[in-house]
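Worked Example 4.2. Consider the chain below.
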Amino acid sequence: MHSLIKHNMLARFLFNRFDFIIRILYCKLRCYRLFDYLLPDLYSSNFASLNSYFSMISDALRKNGFRIEDKSVLEIGPGNSYINAYNFLHAGARRVILVDKFPRYTDSDRQRSYIKNEIEFFKSRSNTREFPYIDQETGALNPNFIAFIAGDLRSIVFENNVDFIYSIAVLHHVQNLEQYIRRMSEILNPGGMMYHVVDLKDKFHSFGNPFLFYKYSDFTWEKFCTDSAVTYTNRVRYRDYMDMFERSGFDLVWEKTLSYDFPRFRINKKFAGRTDLSIGDAHFLLRKR
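Applying the procedure from the previous section yields the following structure tokens:
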């Protein structure tokens, strides 16, 4: 335990002192092994944690009069976990469509093992033996229940509109975010709903400072500190999300936010005077007008 604490203290010291250099090493020079050492769990998926969001989402939908039974559902950015697709189907959804720009579902033995463990976790938690959604040996999806589309949401043509859209910690990775939100409005049926869990913190917040990226100008941030092929972060703030949703034809039904303290340091003038800088997490439930 003592060595782990010393390891974390060293990682935090190095990142907060040399974060610009480390961001370049990671985003531009692809020095991934450095981060495997400093923060080995940075990009690991946790299906138990992702599963916990389902109860939050379904409770919010139920309290606001939206029933998921026989509805078509779209998840944006499932990554390597389908746990909530299973949850929505088990709750009565007719079909779930998964869209991800960077698919990586069955591309390794490690991922195939993850699939099997996730399925066993779901079956245990839902107390069911039946599992028609996916072939448990090969990982092949049953198209009657789940469809996976690899690509950019803005360029995908859907055969039919959907009734419900959700994402978990995805939208902060999207470039040209307002175009994505407008596209969601186009493919959502009138009266349909969306639920988005948004992480508004610096991607490397585990190093102890959730908002260190406020010190950079847009030019420096986009040119040197983030990269669309690695771990793009758009730095869109809470109030901006609200404005984009409004302009794209959505009414806010419910929200929850979580704020964080952050050390005082000089922030870039881009963020000066804003009142929403301490908000690090947000849940948005929206209805299409």
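The chain has one domain: 45-200+236-288. The CA atoms of residues 149 and 227 lie 23 Å apart. Compare this with Example 4.1 before moving on.
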